[in-house]
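Email to the structure team, subject: Protein GrpE model.

Hi all, the expression group asked for a predicted structure before they design truncation constructs. Nothing fancy, just the tokens so they can compare against earlier work. One-line instruction: predict Protein GrpE, return tokens.
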Amino acid sequence: MTTEPMKEAAEQAAAENEISPLAAELEAVRAELAQLREDSLRDRADLENQRKRLERERDSARKFANERLLADLLPVIDSLEAGLGAAGDNADALREGVELTLRQLLKVGADNGLVEVNPADQPFNPDHHQAMSMVDSPDHAPGHVVQVYQKGWLLNDRLLRPALVVVSRTE
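Reply from the structure team: attached below.
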């Protein structure tokens, strides 16, 4: 009977020796899993912070996209105000001031990619012109612009507003 408890103790010690490495490996796997979860949470938080930062930057860019253009227009506003203040009853001075201000405004527009479309006596171009009517005109070639109601505008080669025109009829 004494051999039996010894045998059990030996078997128990052998079993514990087998379990001990498995328990250590299990603990290592658990620690690695905890580290991976922590890394995943950190990466998710970083991505969320980056998304929020990009959204703020996009909103700011949209909000201040016209800042340069509007800053360039401030002297034009100043010129209009000064011209109206100085003109009084003098129509010639008022006209001169308005013409000067228009030149300033057109320069600011051109500096920012704005180009006038004034197609008088040119062939009708449906990409840049909108025909309001057609007329018989012996002075103009068929399909040419006879009259411009309203000039069109391009912004960096993209149509901003078509020119409103009257076109001569084709024969």
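The CA atoms of residues 84 and 94 lie 7 Å apart. The longest helix spans residues 3-63. Ping us if the truncation boundaries need rechecking.
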